[in-house]
Model the fold of this input.
Amino acid sequence: MVAARLLLAAGLVAVFSLSSCSQPQSAPEASQARLVEALLQAKVIQPDLVLVHASHTCDLLADGMLLRVVDARLIGKTAGSPRGFNHIAVFGPDWRLVQDIQYVNQRPLFCKGNQLVLFGDIAIRNEMPQGNVLEFADKGATVVVKSLDYNSLPTFGEARGFPK
Amino acid sequence: MTPLSIVKIGDTVGGGKAKNNLADVKIVQGLFNDAIDFGDPAVHGLAAIPADGKISPTLLKMIQQYQRLKGLGPPAKPDDVVIDPGKGTMKHLSRNPYVDARWSSWDDDIKTEVASYNKKFGSSSGYSTLDWRLIKAQVWTEVKAGPDAGDWWSRPMQIGKFASDKGLQVIRGGLDHSDLVTDQKLRDDLKKDSTGGNNIRAGVAYDVHLGAQYSRVEVIDQPAVKIHVVVKKDTLDSIAKAESTTVHNLESLNGLASASVLSLGQQLKFQLAHWEWQISGWDPWTDAIEAYNGGGDPNYMTKIAAALAKVKNRW
Done:
């Protein structure tokens, strides 16, 4: 099941990176050290938590500003089940935090223009409506939740123009 | 910390030279049945026995297996197996959550809190009655070791354990619309102390908050329609502020689009109105409980379900 989900995620990223012509110019690949440093400065990483994952998912383009989407997952040690602190941290070109959205299982998948597609529906601060797309405006200061039907996405073959 | 209360027997129970008084044997049989009922691995594969006070080969086998798997002595022949009053076996049997009352020490706090939310939101659209046993199962999951762990008494819901724990900050500060779920007294109490019974209160409040769906709703304060005459520099925003209404109300009553150009002297209808956040629905409690864990334990809901089954078996 997990493997299937990962494959789906990988496939979607591949499809969009190939099919979308409105992709922003990608930022230079961030080093892991730079990523962690930015998360520390933004206080996404807290000293009493365990950092179990940090990755640069993709880049958004919102009102001409390039925004870096970082997926950071942290664990808090408890007397029972570990507590999760999962973040979609969005940084400006200068690595200043512009949005910090906590999620449970709705990890970020891929960027398309000013939209970030998630794996599952999220409701920021439990505000309705919920959806699987975060649309950024005002250079990242504003986020609107929208929905995307995965079935509307082109298959890998369609994106590549393979004959049926 | 409340000490473990060990179940007492008057004299020895078992094979060989054990006294096996009727009352003592009945107590031991009952304790083993509790252990089986709870699913203690040390009695795995054994079936419940009648609590009739009679020593049987099955009971002796049960004692033997239990003592061996709990590390209470070298393997013995069934006839050599003996339980002494106040010794290791009785202590271990007394720790079973079905027997040890400390595992139920928060029941009253949980029931009180859950009942208050069920009363408050019972008629709220989409609200399903919260079962206090679900929270009991959550406490059992949050502090796996139970009452022998210090956290059981200080932070039974484990909320506020971390400086970065958003849950307690949200509830204590009435943030993210949680003030629609909680009352001021809880928020004040949590500013003084978030441990013990208040930790239960904070945890339940956070569960309920995570179950609530919040929507921004336009509220018409007075249905009477009034008129605003447009003057120089008016915008829909400035008119809405000046007349205590909303841009949406101006647009909808006057058939305007958001980018409409206003003209001097134009008469705009409006009602006194404002926007406010309200609870518009509820997620299933299982979703709220899963969100409580924050995605830290992929097996959290499986553990909750297992604990809930054990809780429902007795409560």
About this structure: The interface with chain A takes residues 141-145, 149, 151-152, 155, 158, 161-166, 176-177, 209-210, 212-216, 277, 280-281, 290-291, 293-297, 299-300, 303 of chain B (CB under 8 Å). Strands of chain B lie at 13-14, 82-83, 212-229, 267-282. Residues 104 and 287 of chain B are 25 Å apart (CA to CA).
